[in-house]
UniProtKB/TrEMBL annotation:
Organism: Paraburkholderia tagetis
One example GO MF annotation: glycosyltransferase activity
Protein name as it appears in the record: Glycosyltransferase
EC number: 2.4.-.-
Keywords, comma-separated and alphabetical: Glycosyltransferase, Transferase
Pfam families recorded: Glyco_trans_1_4 (PF13692)
Length: 463
């Protein structure tokens, strides 16, 4: 395990240098210039403890990565900002494209929280790499620090953010760099992974295959980044087994390359405290609470094209005798338009799964995504005892099957949904049995302790 404290033979030297630095009768600007020169030396001493001569030689070398003054100043500003916020002993840097309340961001937070639970003395950086968006509803946690690269670059170009992320990894030398859906992060891995893997173990996550408008052409993270990015990675993580199996076949991965692909199942945010007892209670009260009322179905997620809002619109138009409560907002696309119909109730964004069931019970949950890994929203509503109708895209079939829900074909029609919904209304006992089976599945595979156990056992990640 890497040592993060200053080694004893350099402690006196560094303390003396620090006292001299603060007592020098120089302007702050001049002191910052001095700091810019010695910062790589101090960082290297703290991280690897080579000889002072080797460190200074590396800092002065023409090929040193910090030789560009403007580039160096960006890194300096970022590191000083981290120091000002009390960041220390960073063991993991996790990159995300933006910080919202979606699935990928929840995965990043889960890994960060697991690291903190396993090693409370270590800190984690969540680097918002592609866009500057940070949702105000994202919960800030002790020891997990959000860094927005755009705040330290002169413009919004990926090239600048890529170079800054690269320099940050080299400067901090974390145990792990983990990229989750960031194009900036993928470019760093592809272009500089062979060098970076000497100072950190490299991980990335891909959750599903994505497809173009024709429904056949593969696009997105797997198509663009998996093959060129795989060689320097310690492991490529997914949240479902189906992607792991399909990717091995799709790209002809065998031997060591195939073994790099691993599935780590996500925990359900709703599986806390006495969640199971509460869910069983909701299921037992379900029939009585719904009796005599119009069927009410819940939909929640991003109002983006890949979530098949067009299919949802067709469904609500064809089922005027059902009420639909729709939670969410657009993140990637401009917001998809929902019809102004009496049976459509647009509820807006949500931060917690419990918000979804606070006002009413539901006949069931409707899931309409075009592609998916293992959707967090299904883990959440399933743990709340709400029965689910969903197409078996990506890893969904590992969660929603005949025993545990109402699975549909990968390319379902509105009629497929309507038939499943009417079956739920006609057979309440069967619905309750499937909802309880879903609780069993989540309890055995998607709880927080189980997730931490997986992270801790992941070679190179749990340290």
């Amino acid at each position: 395990m890497k040592e993060y404290s200053v080694m004893p033979r350099y402690e006196k030297f560094l303390r003396f240098a620090q006292r001299v630095y603060h007592r020098l009768p120089l302007t702050q600007e001049t002191k910052w210039r001095i700091r810019r020169f010695i910062l790589p030396v101090l960082l290297s001493l703290r991280q690897e403890n080579p000889s002072i001569g080797e460190v200074i030689k590396a800092a002065l070398a023409p090929s040193a990565p910090l030789r560009d003054q403007t580039r160096e100043a960006r890194l300096q500003r970022l590191l000083l900002d981290l120091a000002g916020h009390g960041v220390r002993d960073v063991s993991h840097i996790i990159a995300v494209p933006f910080m919202g309340t979606g699935g990928a961001e929840n995965v990043a937070l889960n890994f960060a929280k697991a690291v903190r639970e396993i090693h409370p003395e270590r800190h984690v950086l969540l680097v918002v790499a592609d866009r500057a968006h940070v949702d105000e509803r994202v919960v800030r946690l002790d020891g997990i620090h959000v860094v927005v690269l755009r705040q330290f670059t002169d413009d919004d170009s990926y090239a600048l953010k890529q170079s800054l992320l690269y320099d940050l990894i080299l400067a901090i030398k974390p145990e792990v760099f983990h990229n989750i859906n960031s194009e900036v992060g993928w470019n760093v891995i592809i272009e500089s992974g062979e060098r970076l893997k000497r100072v950190a173990k490299l991980f990335a996550s891909i959750f599903a295959f994505q497809f173009g408008e024709d429904g056949k052409t593969k696009i997105g993270y797997a198509a663009y980044f998996l093959q060129p990015g795989l060689p320097p990675l310690t492991a490529l993580l997914s949240d479902n087994q189906r992607f792991v199996k399909d990717a091995r076949v799709e790209y002809g991965l065998t031997g060591e390359r195939a073994e790099k692909l691993k599935a780590i199942y996500n925990p359900s945010r709703a599986s806390t405290d006495d969640w199971r007892a509460q869910a069983l209670d909701r299921i037992s009260r379900r029939h009585t609470e719904l009796a005599g009322k119009r069927p009410a179905f819940l939909w929640a997620g991003r109002l983006d094209k890949e979530k098949r809002i067009d299919l949802l619109v067709k469904l609500v138009q064809e089922c005027p005798h059902f009420d639909f409560y729709i939670y969410g907002q657009a993140v990637v696309d401009s917001e998809e338009q929902l019809p102004n119909l009496p049976n459509v109730h647009v509820m807006g964004p949500f931060a917690s799964p419990l918000e979804l069931i606070a006002e009413r019970p539901y006949t069931g949950f409707i899931f309409t995504s075009k592609w998916e890994g293992m959707p967090n929203i299904l883990l959440e509503v399933g743990a709340l005892g709400v029965p689910i109708v969903a197409p078996t895209v990506g890893g969904v079939g590992e969660l929603v099957s005949e025993p545990s829900g109402y699975p549909l074909p990968e390319k379902p029609t509105a009629e497929d949904y309507r038939e499943a919904m009417e079956s739920m209304i006609a057979n309440p006992a069967a619905v309750e049995a499937r909802a309880r089976a879903m609780l069993d599945l989540i309890d055995g595979r998607h709880t927080w302790p189980r997730f931490v156990e997986q992270v801790k056992g992941l070679e190179g990640y749990g340290i």
